[in-house]
Design goal:
Layout lengths: L4 H13 L2 H8 L3 H15 L4 E4 L2 E4 L1 H25 L6 E5 L1 H6 L2 H9 L4 E5 L2 H9 L5 E5 L8 E8 L1 E6 L18 E5 L5 H12 L4 E6 L3 H10 L4 E4 L8 E5 L6 E7 L5 H10 L1
Parallel strand pairs: 3-4, 3-5, 8-9
Antiparallel strand pairs: 1-2, 5-12, 6-12, 7-10, 7-11
């Protein structure tokens, strides 16, 4: 079976975006041409490389393996050409969620860049972060995980309690800690439905038979804190989230801590190891 370099490059770009429009733009080809190229790859391999889940395209296991092979092939070619003409190595790719970038990674990224290195920063939730590390789109990921996967190297970076944040005039504001039962009949500011944090909170409330309602759905920690500060309602967040003096943070004793991990593949290079060391 012949795998053409151009086809591998096209699939690597498609795997990075998981979107035909953006991938075609990066490759400077039409969407129909890219569709045709991906279909031919699937025909050669005899198995699907991606599947549509709602409005989102996800790589199959074969797709993740092909993307990893394509990225590895591109990296080896880049390294070879670099050895010939002393070209600088490609920037390391890091993937993380907005919370990790906002509250955990700022100082290490600044120090790494100050050493003369380059970084390509990608954003994604936990599922997208793991997929990007698996298929080689990213060299290193940082994300919150309940259970680290066995096929990647996951090193604990930080652990935070889950906390209730309220305005100073809320009845619970002076408590040193709370339990979920203290939130009975509260209207909470929460992430959109389907987000991991929202799902865990809903399960925990349901397990304890606690009635509650949604005051407003907020995308991203900063907007969520903003609504709490306005008095829309309290919220449960992980303890890494920064607030102002107008907002009180109270640990929730019967929710599990949030654990952030540095995620890499086993075949990481020296620069990835250096960055990982700075993060830890």
């Amino acid at each position: 079976m012949e795998l053409v370099a151009e086809d591998l490059e096209a699939f690597a770009v498609f795997a990075q975006h998981r979107n035909f429009t953006r991938a075609a733009e990066d490759l400077h080809v039409s969407q129909p041409a890219l569709h045709t190229r991906i279909r031919k790859l699937e025909a050669r391999l005899g198995r699907p490389l991606y599947a549509k889940r709602g409005r989102v395209l996800q790589l199959t296991e074969a797709g993740e393996r092909l993307a990893a092979f394509a990225n590895e092939t591109r990296d080896r070619a880049t390294d070879f050409l670099s050895s010939l003409d002393a070209a600088p190595p490609r920037p390391l790719a890091v993937v993380a969620g907005s919370g990790a970038y906002l509250y955990l990674l700022g100082d290490p990224i600044r120090r790494f860049l100050a050493r003369g290195h380059e970084l390509r920063l990608l954003s994604g939730d936990a599922t997208e972060t793991l997929a990007a590390v698996r298929d080689g789109t990213a060299d290193l990921g940082v994300t919150a995980l309940a259970v680290p996967p066995d096929d990647l190297e996951c090193t604990l970076l930080a652990q935070y309690p889950q906390t209730l944040i309220t305005r100073a005039d809320h009845p619970l504001a002076d408590r040193r800690s709370v339990r979920l039962k203290d939130l009975q009949d509260e209207a909470l500011v929460v992430p959109p439905k389907g987000r991991p944090h929202r799902q865990q909170l809903e399960r925990s409330m349901l397990d304890q038979g606690i009635r509650w309602s949604v005051a407003v759905e907020a995308e991203g920690w900063e907007l969520l804190v903003h609504f709490v500060r306005l008095g829309v309602g309290p919220a449960v967040v992980n303890g890494s989230v920064r607030t102002t003096g107008a907002v009180r943070k109270i640990p929730v004793k019967d929710l599990p801590p949030v654990r952030y991990y540095v995620v890499t593949r086993a075949d990481r290079g020296d620069r990835v190891e250096e960055l990982k060391g700075m993060l830890l």
